[in-house]
Amino acid sequence: MSAPDARPNLLVDDGAARHLRKGLRLPDVALPAISGKPVSLAKLAGLTVAFFYPWTGRPGAPNPPHWDDIPGAHGSTPQAEGFRNLEIAFAELGVKIVGVSTQASDYQREFAGRLGLRYDLLSDANFELQKALGLPTFETGDVTYLKRLTLVIRDGAILRVYYPIAQPAAHARDVCAAIGMSDRRH
Description:
Layout: E1 30-31, E2 39-40, E3 47-52, H1 76-85, H2 87-92, E4 95-101, H3 105-115, E5 120-123, H4 128-133, E6 137-140, E7 143-146, E8 149-154, E9 157-162, H5 168-181
Parallel strand pairs: 3-4, 4-5
Antiparallel strand pairs: 1-2, 3-8, 6-7, 8-9
Helix pairs in contact: 1-5
């Protein structure tokens, strides 16, 4: 009799982001931002890292149903903190950072304040960008969430896609290192 798998809920590439390829132009969808001005990823000049995350909890509040059983669901707070901690390094590379979830801007604003985030968070609460790009999602408790995904964007077109993201806490470091080592003229 074999031992039970010591690594349950392994995150595997399900192919749900396969259509998001280098060179794909982003749709011009303006999303509410915690800065107060709508932001369209398609219109951002230069390099931008847009990390999409499912949900951020609040201390003392319960997670959505079955959250612990969903591969890739946990990790939004450490991922956001990783980008916060490397914001200067990204800026030195000429890279803007934005986070995107389907949570409302008020919820995101509280989260950003609690974590001391200085970059913008965008709300796709109406799933406009998700639908236009076909971003991968999952459901639990009759609520739909974005799957964790990162796009490196240059002048409104995808330069690189990170999906799935197995280690959210280390993800910002990996992205920053990859951008720093790549030829950013492409």
